[in-house]
Write a structure and sequence with these properties.
By secondary structure, this protein is α+β, with helices and mostly antiparallel strands. The chain is built from 11 helices and 18 strands. The protein has a 4-stranded antiparallel sheet. A 4-stranded mixed sheet has the order 16-15-12-17.
């Protein structure tokens, strides 16, 4: 059922984009309003040609569901049998955003691998190899899982199952790739570009490179440039409203908020959920057709991953096809069990107490585009992407909202917070002071590469199905129970029109 829904939603996206964008190209440069502050006309070459787009609503990208933001109680609400106290309850506000309806599947990831091999396989084969999932995560020293190492990713029977064996870095790279493919398709649907099957290596469509004039592609019909000193034609700009923001991994707060699904609760945020569905049980207690069925696939008990033959309790031995269990109130599938999912955040034991209460997130490393000697954006890299560098302390010395580029360990691992805990670090390299703070490798595995993953999996008990539970893993490691889904920023009003 969910496959038909996804196909229909994709078709509706194409139709909507084709209709809205086919009209917007005519609207850009045709609207003739007057500035309320200067009295000069918009979209008029006689008055300088300043162009204002009629597009004022963000399109919903393929695969995404709109998540209206709001306030909620973030943190653990169920019992804490391990007494870890790593997720104290705290009220925060999350901005509206978009999130994938389901986890990224093997088919989705195979499409990504195919594109990488086609574009980079001849000259930069290491790009393709770097993106390959670690299929050996299925191996167990005392279990027979060997067939899964060769079949799970590539056999068509598993196409609709969530991809696993992908580490945090690979998942983040996938988000970048997906952003470019969607924006390229938008320009093709608009008629501005034609499909270019000859893209190779650095000569491939990248959104930032295109916006900065470092990629042209096969131009079909450029937009009209109303600047009287211009050439008459121009490429798309972000101000036109055609291109979408980047796909990315959700923050921990976004993921937990979306999984909890507090939609239409009428300010009753004190009525907290243990699971992404209503009630305190892991079985369906509301619908007539599915009454008594499990709401997710998980490990019911020791040695019980799916129940008894002829009456399987959750219908899955390992992972399950995405979308076969009921969605939550936001329309998101598999926000409990199936696979755990990567988030953007760097892990800290008490992140809930440290981070901001508006759009909370730990992991900021502020950057700026690399410039050449002429002060222009430097030539793109071998992958066709704009190069960035971290800002310097000199560039941030007069700011009051940040003073360093790397804020991952701010107030929890940086030199100042370490000093406050009675230990002075002789060096000033903040990246190493986190290891001193937590005795990385001696008594903990916490450093600046530890990333939060959320949600239970097919390998976990019911305790881990609660959205407030948080765990972490090194960003370069992968498992057979962690996958991911993408998110996207919401532009403009938090309420979808």
């Amino acid at each position: 059922m969910i496959l038909k829904i996804k196909q229909l939603s994709g078709l509706l996206f194409i139709v909507a984009i084709a209709v809205s964008l086919s009209s917007c190209k005519g609207l850009i440069g045709s609207k003739n309003e007057t500035s309320a502050t200067t009295g000069w006309s918009y979209n008029d070459p006689e008055f300088g040609g300043f162009q204002v787009s009629d597009i004022n609503e963000q399109e919903t990208g393929p695969g995404l569901v709109f998540i209206e933001g709001g306030s909620f109680i973030m943190g653990q609400i169920d019992e804490d049998p391990l007494y870890e106290t790593t997720a104290p309850a705290r009220r925060v506000t999350v901005r509206s955003f978009y999130m994938d309806e389901t986890e990224i599947t093997n088919r989705d990831y195979l499409e990504y691998l195919y594109w990488l091999n086609r574009i980079f396989g001849e000259e930069l084969p290491e790009v393709y190899r770097k993106a390959l999932p670690d299929t050996l995560v299925w191996r167990d020293k005392l279990a027979y899982n060997e067939p899964l190492t060769s079949l799970y990713l590539r056999h068509p029977a598993y196409h609709d199952y969530p991809v696993v064996g992908v580490n945090w870095l690979q998942a983040s790279d996938y988000c970048i790739w997906r952003s470019d493919r969607v924006n390229e398709m938008l320009l093709i649907r608009q008629g501005i570009l034609s499909p270019d099957q000859d893209q190779q290596s650095a000569n491939n469509f990248n959104t930032e490179s295109y916006l900065n004039g470092q990629y042209d592609g096969l131009v079909n019909e450029p937009l009209q440039d109303l600047d009287p000193t211009g050439t008459g034609d121009r490429r798309v700009r972000m101000e036109d409203g055609i291109l979408l923001p980047q796909y990315r991994l959700p923050t921990e707060a976004e993921w937990e908020y979306a999984a909890t699904g507090l939609y239409g609760e009428d300010e009753m945020i004190t009525e907290r959920k243990i699971y992404p569905w209503q009630g305190h049980l892991v079985r369906d207690t509301e619908s007539k057709s599915g009454y008594g069925n499990f709401m997710a696939n998980f490990k019911r008990g020791r040695g019980d991953y799916m129940g008894i033959a002829g009456s399987l309790n959750d219908g899955a031995d390992i992972t399950a096809p995405v979308g076969i269990y009921p969605p939550n109130d936001f329309g998101l599938y598999n926000m409990a069990a199936n696979v755990s999912e990567w988030t953007q955040d760097v892990y800290r034991p008490l992140s809930h107490e440290d981070v901001a209460d508006f759009s909370p997130y730990r992991g900021n490393v502020f950057t700026t585009p690399l410039l050449n000697e002429e002060g222009r954006i430097a030539e793109k890299d071998s992958l066709g992407r704009i190069r960035y560098r971290e800002i310097t302390s000199t560039e941030a010395e007069d700011r009051f909202n940040y003073r360093e580029a790397n804020n991952i360990n701010y107030l929890d691992g940086d030199n100042q917070s370490t000093l406050e805990r009675g230990k002075w670090l002789q060096n000033t390299n903040n990246s190493s002071s986190t290891g001193e703070m937590y005795s990385y490798g001696a008594s903990s595995l916490i450093n600046d590469k530890a990333r939060v993953y959320k949600g239970g999996s097919w390998k976990d008990g019911a305790y881990y199905l609660s959205p407030g539970i948080r765990r972490f893993l090194d960003q370069e490691r992968a498992t057979d129970y962690i996958g991911f889904r993408c998110a996207m920023d919401r532009v403009g009003t938090p309420i979808k029109k």
